[in-house]
Fold this sequence. Notes:
Layout: E1 2-3, E2 6-7, E3 13-16, E4 29-30, H1 39-44, E5 48-50, H2 53-66, H3 74-109
Parallel strand pairs: 3-4, 3-5
Antiparallel strand pairs: 1-2
Helix pairs in contact: 2-3
Amino acid sequence: xxxxxxxxxxxxxxxxxxxxxxxxxxxxxxxxxxxxxxxxxxxxxxxxxxxxxxxxxxxxxxxxxxxxxxxxxxxxxxxxxxxxxxxxxxxxxxxxxxxxxxxxxxxxxx
Length: 110
């Protein structure tokens, strides 16, 4: 997919992101502008509606690999912290749902 003048793999592109207020390029790209009118085609090319938790974990891994011997740039740190926040919120919600499901199953047995 050609986005922002670069060709990137479709697994790094989505139409929406919880990090849309932060520039996550070159790790994750959001479809914008003129490309939005090609949404049906882009969906066929495996561009997703939303990024998934795995995408944010890979983003942090890529940042770690890129800056293995140097401190993160301020932009890199902002992206990393925002991605980790998304991961932790998703994991917290999943844990909370699991707890409530277990509680519901326990009440059903009584």
